[in-house]
Amino acid sequence: MISVKELNVVQTPPVVTLSAKAAEMVRDILAKEDNDQLALRVYVAGGGCSGLQYGMALDDPSEEDVTIDYDGIRVVIDNESLRFIEGSEIDYVDSLMGAGFTVNNPNAVSSCGCGHSFRTEEESGSARGCGCH
After folding, report:
1. Structural domains of the chain, count
2. Nearest to 100 by CA among 26, 7, 15, 1
3. Residue 70 included in any domain
4. Residue of 75, 59, 56 whose CA lies nearest to 18
5. Is residue 69, in this structure, part of any structural domain at all?
6. Residue 107 within a domain
7. Between β-strands 73-77 and 39-46, what pairing exists: parallel, antiparallel or unpaired?
8. What is the CA radius of gyration of the chain?
9. Which of 45, 59, 68, 69 has its CA 20 to 30 A from that of 23?
10. Which domain holds residue 96?
11. How many angstroms separate the CA atoms of 69 and 40, rounded?
12. Distance between first and last Cα of the chain
């Protein structure tokens, strides 16, 4: 007889996730490029009216990046940005006010009305105009 010992399994949340709509849009954008090495880079930089702002670009991954494979889409994040956006969901919103990517960030304690600028409890950066008003 084989005995099975009960294990405590701790699941960690994904570093960053993509909504179905965001994944569809990223796939469409990547399909138009003639470079299979490109990944979606998600980063945080100082600026914006809340102190920090999100950025996204198509880029070649570097060895220092955290790389996430999300249903065939490579998402890369540098370690400095990771501490601000870990646990976030990237979504694509198409509304009367416009369309674009947005980040639902559980680490943000406040954000700008445009959704591109935010502040965390740990770090706020220095606020600058982001042009959303």
Report:
1. 1
2. 26
3. yes
4. 75
5. yes
6. yes
7. parallel
8. 17
9. 45
10. 16-120
11. 10
12. 70
